[in-house]
Design goal:
- The protein is α+β, with helices and mostly antiparallel strands.
- Helix content is about 40%, strand content about 30%.
- It contains two helices and four strands.
- Strands 1-2-3-4 form a four-stranded antiparallel beta sheet.
- It is globular and about 40 Å long.
Length: about 110
């Protein structure tokens, strides 16, 4: 298993993963959310990380910047969405992806 930053050419695979993980009712909504979040270019960065197994992406997480009203010096990110392919769930991969992402945020001063 390999953790890494997502790349722009991963978007189709990421959206397919979210549809697969969230099912027919919620999947298309999450697909649209992921596409919209990853289009954001201005301001603070959006962090997008994946888990690869071989050549296949089996997990994805997005962390987006948020502002906390009344807090001038706090830099914060919200985690949403997170998906692990159905065949790889219940193995601690979501926790591993969160841990990896928190380390990456810390490396970037968040």
């Amino acid at each position: 298993m390999k953790f890494r930053n997502s790349k722009s050419d991963d978007i189709g695979f990421l959206c397919d993963l979210h549809v697969d993980a969230f099912g027919d009712s919620e999947g298309p909504v999450i697909d649209k959310l992921v596409r919209n979040i990853l289009k954001v270019q201005a301001g603070k960065p959006v962090y997008s990380h994946v888990i690869e197994s071989g050549e296949k992406i089996i997990g994805h997480i997005v962390l987006s910047p948020v502002e906390i009203e009344g807090a001038e010096r706090i830099e914060a990110y919200i985690l949403a969405p997170l998906a692990i392919s159905p065949g790889n769930q219940e193995q601690g991969l979501g926790t591993g992806l969160i841990d990896y992402s928190v380390k990456e945020l810390k490396k970037n001063g968040v």
